[in-house]
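User: Just a sanity check before I run the rest of the batch. Below are the structure tokens for the first item. I only need the designed sequence back.
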């Protein structure tokens, strides 16, 4: 599979574009160029940042956009290299290897767990930020949630307040939910963590979780077929499954099995509801970290990994109706409503 790559230059302040200098490699692997900004807040250094996403889907795209917006708003001049691994583990390793060999890069942002694992495994001499990683410790990116002391830090989408089983019961009624199917990619550590969390939440509620794991996106149809007897299906922030979410939506509507999801973008694509985080804001928080490293001269290893915990309920009444479900008024009163895109 061919890797898509392109180069984009953002010159945030036109008047200093002619003075911009390419940032050189840093002797300290965890620190960026520490040239201070001018009095007006602009920075005379042009930074080179590589961004790699595991694949192209709305939540990951929102992270990348939030990251870029923060640096643009802070008048930081950046030349971006962007690579999409297209959901292919082999591509993540190839992309990471190209970054390791590129001594001109000042910082690398890896979006989603597989991409982050590949970059951290190969790049040790430049700051690396991860984003959209559910459990960076379990994924082997950092040793703990405190400052790592290495060249790695970032933001997690671990969402202990999501409580999907409880939300499903609240919307469908406890008597109507005895089994919840969980469709996930066997190769994504973040999804294994979410499965364990769902099982722990569901057991005291009297719900049995029925997992269906797939090796890759080509197995999506088979994986969802295995859930034909459950009362509801939950898809978390699994990159592989979310990339083909329309197949799951179609299956759920055909069999009248409501689909609940782990992020707001997936609600717009046909999920009933989520109690999730804002991925654009997650990207912005990651962008703030990049600013601390590149402009303020902090070391990545001195910045603790960040878990974003602000959640909101997002519902799609039109999608619910397509599954034969009506969202209770009590839920609608506290939720943000969206329509299917």
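Assistant: Here's the designed sequence for the first item:
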């Amino acid at each position: 599979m061919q890797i898509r790559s392109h180069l984009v230059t953002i010159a945030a302040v036109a008047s200093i574009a002619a003075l911009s200098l390419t940032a050189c490699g840093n002797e300290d692997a965890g620190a960026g160029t520490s040239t201070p900004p001018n009095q007006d807040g602009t920075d005379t250094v042009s930074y080179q940042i590589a961004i790699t996403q595991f694949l192209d889907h709305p939540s990951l795209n929102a992270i990348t956009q939030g990251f870029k917006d923060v640096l643009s708003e802070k008048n930081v001049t950046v030349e971006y290299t962007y690579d999409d691994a297209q959901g292919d583990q082999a591509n993540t390793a190839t992309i990471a290897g190209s970054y390791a060999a590129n001594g001109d890069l000042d910082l690398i942002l890896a979006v989603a767990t597989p991409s982050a694992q590949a970059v951290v495994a190969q790049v040790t001499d430049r700051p690396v930020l991860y984003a959209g990683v559910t459990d960076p410790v379990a994924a082997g990116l950092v040793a703990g949630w405190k400052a790592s002391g290495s060249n790695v830090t970032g933001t997690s989408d671990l969402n202990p307040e999501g409580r999907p089983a409880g939300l499903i019961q609240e919307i469908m009624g406890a008597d109507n939910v005895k089994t919840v199917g969980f469709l996930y990619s066997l190769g994504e550590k973040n999804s294994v963590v979410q499965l364990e969390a769902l099982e722990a939440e569901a057991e005291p509620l009297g719900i049995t979780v029925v997992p269906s794991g797939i090796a890759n996106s080509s197995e999506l149809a088979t994986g969802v077929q295995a859930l034909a007897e459950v009362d509801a299906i939950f898809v978390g922030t699994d990159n592989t499954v979310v990339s083909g979410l329309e197949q799951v939506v179609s299956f759920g509507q055909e069999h009248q099995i409501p689909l609940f999801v782990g992020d707001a973008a997936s609600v717009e694509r046909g999920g009933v509801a989520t109690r999730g985080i804002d991925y654009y804001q997650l990207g912005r928080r990651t962008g703030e970290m990049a600013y601390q490293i590149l402009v303020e001269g902090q070391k990545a290893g001195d910045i603790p990994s960040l878990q974003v915990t602000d959640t909101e309920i997002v519902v799609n009444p039109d999608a619910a109706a397509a599954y034969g479900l009506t969202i209770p008024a009590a839920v609608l009163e506290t939720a943000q409503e969206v329509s299917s895109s």
